[in-house]
Amino acid sequence: MNAPAFNENLHLLNGNHAVAWGVRLAKPDVAPLYPITPQTPILEKLIDFQSKNEFDAELLTPESEHSAMAAAIAASATGARVFTATSSQGLLLMHELLHYASGARTPMVLFNVNRTPGAPWGFWPDQIDSLSQRDTGWIQFYSENPQESLDTVIQAFRISEAANLPVMINHDAFYVSHSIEPVNLPSAEVVDGFLPRIPREFQLGDDSGRSLGAPLDQAGWNLTRQDMDVAMQGVERLTAAAGGDWAKLTGRPAAPLELYRCEDAEVVFVTMGSMCGNAREAVDRLRENGIAAGLLKVRLFRPLPAEALREALAGVPCAIVLDRNYSPGTGGVLHQELKAVLFGIETPPRLHGMLAGVGGVNVPVETIEKLAAEYRNAAPSAQPIWVE
Amino acid sequence: MNEQISPLWTHLTTEGRMTGTWRSALPNYQNQPSPCLGACPVNGRIAEWIKQVKDGDLQGAWVTLVDNNPFPAIAGRICHHPCETACNRQDLDETVGICSLERFVGDAALAEGWQFPSASIERDQSVAVIGGGPAGLSAAYQLRRHGFAVSLYETRDELGGLMRFGIPSYRLEPAVLDGEVDRIVALGIDLHLGAEVTDNAALTALRGSHDAVFLATGASLPKRLPALDYSRPWVIDSAEFLAAPADEQSDQAGAHILVIGGGSAAMDVARSARRHGREVTVLTLEPEGQLPAQQVEVEEAIEEGVKFVCGAMLQSAETDGTGVKLQCVHVDFETGKNPGEFSVTPLEGSGFELLVDTIIPAVGQDADIDRWSGMFDQQGSVIGTGTDWQTSAPGLFAGGDVASMSRFVTQAVGMGKEAAQAIAASLAPDIALPGADDPAQVPYERINTTYQDKHNRTRQRSRDVKERLAGFDQVQQPLSADKAHSEASRCFSCGTCIYCDNCYYYCPDMAITRLDGGYSVNADYCKGCGLCVAECPTGSIHMQEEKAP
Q1: Are residues A211 and A85 in the same domain?
Q2: Beta-carbon separation of B12 and A216 below 8 A
Q3: CA nearest A164 in B: which residue?
Q4: By the CB < 8 Å criterion, does B231 face chain A?
Q5: Judgement on whether residues B210 and B154 belong to the same structural domain of the protein
Q6: Model ipTM?
Q7: Are residues A56 and A201 in the same domain?
Q8: A162, A209, A212 member nearest B8 (Cβ)
């Protein structure tokens, strides 16, 4: 990408501090937070802001991520705008309540810094922590860089509050969370205008005398999931609309999917998060060497933009999925998702599943280039391929 | 999104699910005694009145205090404060300065002129109280509060007993004593000052003219050391010395004074003599650190230049022309089972000499019970009583030093109160004896110290030593209002609900209901998790196991 033009709103920020800036601008009412490496700088920066009276959310510091999520759900149910952040083990500890949050239709934004879960112990970028939460009913975004993380936080509040569904945004440990890049800070006025407060239909403590989540019979429970399905189906449109409005305000587009040089491509890399940076570079080099490569960046992972993915990949001869995650017994999660989405279309690409960068190992541009050379004309394997 | 989300937001309720049936134990709010209450000689509700100080309700604190002790300003100065020794807070940092707070409240009452309310009813019966010291005044006060007519007989011309004639003004100013005594008299007491009730005939006459008699004549006879000839002009009786006005004290004492004894009276004599510019040595049987006087008295005596020779005994004393030569010996000292009991073994070859001008023995006082010969059963050297202070003679009660070897002022106040309660209950069927306190006191482990910051106690400032020795002004300076409040805030309120709402907020079943002045547990929903108990900062809630019917 081109370097951003210098202006007075340009700051050098690491990914986590960019997130904290996004949160500060979005002005949540409540932020229950529990520290965990490599998420902690988000929490620290928010506390720093608060100590300088620049951020006045109710910062709760409970004894665990489970309690943080419980507090977040309760706060949201009272109508509050809520933010929380975590990583890896912390997200996994929240698991039970992730289902509850979506089931209760409590909007909130959770920022997860993708990190390997133990064992063995590690702190490395790997997306299996959040990908293994894909069935909990949360909207999921994957961010490539600090600027995108900031922008997505702000957009996520709008999407979450419109859909009444919680949003999880993810960026890779260290590659994004601790890497410093120039970040454009939108003004408070821009964000305030972009994020109006939407009154809830019901909230705890209102005069309706209603209770939230009381036990229902089978049919009633079933109905809640049908409602959730309707809401989920609207998210892609909400994301596109929020991204479109954001682009008008800031000049930075933010669509559910990003297609980079995919026109007439014979091989398209499909990936998420920080991997997109090297993949984009590899595409440029391949194109220079006469191989028509492209990149399909999946920014919105849940709900999966199925139609858009089909449209993007129909007729492409070869697609190579780069999964920075490993779902034992099957392979890369994004690879599975794409196989499901593409099943039955008329001209599907040959789809290769690459386990690239699992556990945070570096995947250099050259490695990605080689994958194109090696696999673009090969028959796909049923087994996942470990990239060395 | 406008989709209907009503299945989530219903008017359904789970109130019909009595999850309390899962429970095996139920929390119970129980104001269990704090260790300070258990240790207090007057059973003062310390946690309660300190909470009132904390809340800024000084008059309320005073009312709570004087329920058990009409002398908070006095006790706040001179009490030996076993409450502080028992205080749970010492396991966290330092004990709460209960005495200094009591003084703060007592002084406020004197400054504001708060008075006791008149008795709500007047009763026909009358009680004679013999002795106007702490025990007698305490009993008279409690009996008047119950509406009994009280006649108080005192041999001296002024009330106060030992508090007036035994405690120097640098520990207890006369104005404070007068203020707290006058307030009792103002309740309407038939006073007989200078009245000698010193024989059986006089006592029998009073018993005949009253419905009950409380005898509290104190311990007026000095104990005698066998090694000392008390007829010598260089031997002065400590009680007489302390009762004398300052100029007379000065006239009596030589340049170098030996005080014998390690109790409060010995410290009072020694420190008074220092204020007259005398050189003072204190000789005690007890080894250093085990003196019966309060630690602070010993410390202040040392600051004031009193020298101590501890763990030693006088064997003989003779004049040698220039002064009095004493033969002394170091001893092994062992305390006995009961207060006042001990044994000593001289250590061979440890003899030494002391040269002084005057000896003031202050080794304790005995009750003069021979004057009541045949009237009561005795118990050692005091009048025998039951735990209700009833003597063997019907209608005759006794308390204070005449009936006990517990010799601290506030212990006498406590005995006067208990005797008054027993007398009142014996005379009026509508008055019940107070129930015994729960012997189990709140231990430190039951205090949730998460809610307590470490914070050392605020001490009263002591007057500068030079200034102290120049006169008889009060040594301990009072706490300021700010400091009193901060010291009161250190109290754990052990076993006393402070209505903090922790139980209410932490209950995951919302089974706690706020009531006016407390909480109740809804047994239909309480699952017995015990979170309320764990989060109670004062140990006021207990889990009570429920047995199958």
Answers
A1: yes
A2: yes
A3: B1
A4: no
A5: yes
A6: 0.77
A7: yes
A8: A212
